[in-house]
Structures are given as structure tokens and as C-alpha cells.
Amino acid sequence: MKKTNLFFTIILTLMMSQALLAQTNVKFEIKHLLGEKPCVFDSVAQNNFAQDFTVTRLQYYISNIAITHDTGKVTNVTDYWMLVDASEQTLVDLGSFDIQQVEAISFYVGVGQDKNHADPALYPTSHPLGPKAPAMHWGWSAGYRFIAMEGHSGANMSVYQLHGLGDVNYFKTEVISPMTTPFTNGVVISLDADYTRALENIDMSSGVFVHGDYGAAKQALLNFQGFVFSSGVTNTAIDDKLDAPVFQLFPNPTTIGQVSLRIQDALASYEVQVSDLLGRKVYQAKVALSQTNVSLPIEDSGIYLVSLIKDGKSMATQKLVVK
Length: 323
Fold this sequence. Notes:
By secondary structure, the chain is mainly beta.
């Protein structure tokens, strides 16, 4: 009996060791920018209307982080909130997960409805949702300020304040193929955040004051959803430095039906795989060595991840929007 117990103990130990070896330490970095330059408070930048502005305060919440990896698998980072301050370096530990190659990262700017109307006093001041100075909470009815952006703008450098909030403005953003940097047993997922785009299509000529879920504050939250975050670098596997192939999807967005994929690297054979955001495969096919154009029959509207697979690894991924 003792030998049997010892045998199972050894097997269990080996299984646990293998599970630990599969874990990857994941860090999340946000690089704060004003256009192509680092975000420096009180420095002058311009929005898309060529209107000058400065930043004296910029804080926002990030929550409900999800990582898409290893050919469409999705790992959620649960019970985790970030209070980002653009005046400080943002590099946080998300935890350890069974992840080898990151294909996308998504998150919401703000605080979800289940926590948005809670009392900040329930948390210590060190917690992102705890009491802050200056305050990031508008009251139990309105909830947290999702973003608080302040500074001076226009020819006379008038004071502006944009405090965006509201459950209806809890928007999801996603970045496909974020820049990743490997380190020992881990990877850093890096995004650029260009805050000139937070003020896109907002008239900043004479300063603007909006504290609420409407007007310029709502537009700023929409800009955070669609424009602020990006990555211009295609990632590679954590343990692999192979150059990623380049491919195009067109038209994108498209209507239901055929969409074409054009591969610029015609010297390698790939498998094309299309997955939905839940990781379910909806299309899969091999691409011949000489084949550089592939038609993808997509029958339902939605958002998909199109990946080129080589030797079982995703070499490049793009988002496809089907209306």
C-alpha cells in the first residue's frame, strides 16, 4: 500500500511540475505618448483639428482584461483593475497563465457595473478602486470616473476638464498582435497609448468642461475605445524569433460572403485558420507554397481572428470585421 501511495505521489508531483512549466509570467505595459513623443505633462500637443493642448492630469481605469493566445484561446484576467496614470510608468504583473504566444489583448476602459456603484471606502487606499486624491469616484449613483483628463487648450490656453463616466460608456477595446517582449519564463505585452487621439474630433479651441456621460466626455471615451491604443509591431512566440509573415485582408470590414487574404511571403506554406472571439474555429485550410491569394467563406457577421499557422504555431494574426 505504501509503495502504491508513493507511486501516485510521484506521478502527481510530475504532473504538477509539468503544469508549472507551462505557465508564463505575463506583464502588461502601456507606453504613454503625445503623437510620436513621450507624454510629458504641460508640453504642447495638437489634436486632429490642429488645436493646441497640454495635459496636467490624465488617469483612467482598465478592467476585464482578456488575452487571446495560441490560435484563438482566450484567457481572462479575473478580479483585476488598473488605475493608469499617464504621468507614471505603467508596467504591471497580470499573473501566470498557460500562454505561449499572444495574439491579442482586450480590455474595457472604466469599471464594470457590478463594481461601479460600490463604496470606495470598502477598499484600502492602495487598491485601484479605493479612495483617491484627486478623486476618481463621482458618487454612488454615477460611479467612478472612467477617465479624468485635464489641462489647457486653445489659443489662450484655457482650462479644460473631461471626466467621462457612466455604465452606458463602458466600452471594450482590442489590440491585435500587440508588441511582445520575452524575458525569463515570461513575456511583456506592450501597447502604445497616443493621447492626442483621446481628443480627436473634440473642439478644444477655448477649453471644454464636461463631467458626465455625454458630449465631449463621451466622445473622449469613444476615442479611448477606438483610437488611443495601438501596436505597430507584430509579435513572435515567446521561445521563437522567426520573422512574422505579412498578409492583407480585403475588404476589411466586409459584408457577409467572401473576403480575400493576400500573403506577401510566398516562400513558405501556411495553414489559414479563422476563429471567433470565443476561440471557436470557423474555417481552416492549407495554403500551397505558390498560393498567395485565398478566399475565406465567412457566413455570419461578427469579429474574427485570422491567423497564419506554421508548424503548429500562429505566425501572424489580424482582426476581421464582418458586418
